[in-house]
Amino acid sequence: MTDKKTKKKTQTLHERLQKLRQQLAGMKKQMDDPAEVRDIETQIAAAEAELEKLKGQ
Q1: Residue 15's closest CA among 42, 55, 51?
Q2: Using CA atoms in the order 44, 46, 52, 57, what is the torsion angle rounded to 10 degrees?
Q3: Band of the pLDDT at 46, cuts 50, 70, 90?
Q4: Alpha-carbon distance 40 to 22, whole Å?
Q5: Distance CA 57, CA 27 (A)
Q6: CA dihedral for 34, 44, 14, 6, sign (positive or negative)
Q7: CB count, 10 Å around CB of 17?
Q8: Exposure class string for 21-51: b at 16+ Cβ within 10 A, else e
Q9: How far is CA 4 from the centre of its chain?
Q10: CB-facing half-sphere around the CA of 13: CA atoms within 13 A
Q11: pLDDT the model gives residue 33
Q12: What's the predicted TM-score (pTM) here?
């Protein structure tokens, strides 16, 4: 992967993480569906893992 692609992917992941964290905060306040909260937490973990993988390259 080129530096430009890595940089863009990193930026996209940061934006996605920010949106997911906002969603998670809103869901935790309402707690309508605990399964949705777990799903968002899983998505956050996956995005963070991918970000760490990109940093290691």
Answers
A1: 51
A2: -140
A3: very high
A4: 10
A5: 34
A6: negative
A7: 16
A8: eebbeebeeeeeeeeebeebeebbeebeeeb
A9: 20
A10: 19
A11: 87
A12: 0.85
Angle at 40 between CA 8 and CA 51, to 5 degrees: 30
- Looking up tokens 């990193």, which residue turns up? 10
Q: Which of 24, 17, 22 is nearest to 50 (CA)?
A: 17
In eight-state DSSP terms, residue 56 is T
User: Of the given ranges (5-14, 23-32, 45-54), which has the lowest mean pLDDT?
Assistant: 23-32
Beta strands in the chain (DSSP E): none
